Amino acid sequence: MPLDSSPVWFITGCSTGLGRALATHVLQRGWRAAVTARDPRTVADLVDAHGDRAIALPLDVTDPDQVSAAVARAEEAFGRIDVLVNNAGYGYLAAVEEGEDTEVRALFEANVFGAVAVTKAVLPGMRARRSGHIVAISSLGGLAAFGATGYYHATKFALEGLSESLAAEVAPLGIGVTIVEPGAFRTNWSGPSMKQSAIRIDDYAETAGRRREATLATYGSQPGDPARAAEAVVAALEADAPPLRLLLGTAALQIARGKLDALQRNFTDWEHLSLSTEVAASPA
Ligand code: NAP
Question: Do 161 and 118 form a contact (C-beta atoms < 8 A)?
Fold first, then answer.
């Protein structure tokens, strides 16, 4: 959506990282924002610096009561929500066979169902005004998958599928959707926020096990700058026709292009079988 002169943003997961960087950028631009966090004290400094253009709201996206209360409070304070950013989320390291059911379901609750709940709470207002934009902070991992992060990829692939469908459904209503796919950014994602399975199976030591260690080792030296990610997201939304997908980072772009090439090769190599499955024409 070409942003109007003073758009109202609603951002989840603003205590640290990309959410905080986005909230900071939006407020520095002079716009208004509902800056939400599980513990709103973590965003008090940010909100206090911007007077009545910012409100801090408690929001655990897995808590339906908090979701409806936060959206209602933001709409009451600012009259509307123009841009929703579903940013809250975290990672989980485990080979698929090592995944713990309770942890995996909790991951889906936060990364997928949390985003769904906030989106459903915000959409009625956007539909009524026939305008708005919904941003899903997915991941490069929503396009390409690797060992040890299968469940995280599953949540981000789910978010991508939902967002593509949503985009088709709400475009005629004047509402846009953008899926943001960051590579490695210097946030808490691969550090304090990361969860991992306590179960370790020796047979996966050289695959998922190695990648667990490699992922954790990126903490503190990830190439991506959250402040620059925030600028890029806003620039994309300011375009006349914002993209459905926005990759962030050099490696993300390279890896996504590699995935595209691999898909092309796979489709071409097996085209003969793909084209062999229609009901045979009946003899004339
Ligand atoms: P981060 O610094 O760990 O921030 C994650 C944020 O999500 C925190 O504010 C955290 O709040 C919040 N959160 C987690 N579960 C929540 C819940 N149930 N309800 C509300 N908030 C919740 O990491 P980040 O990199 O900025 O992550 C932001 C998003 O970017 C995530 O969706 C992540 O998957 C995605 N992403 C990150 C990278 C990367 O390399 N950094 C790459 C691709 C995608 P608390 O402080 O309360 O825990």
Answer: no
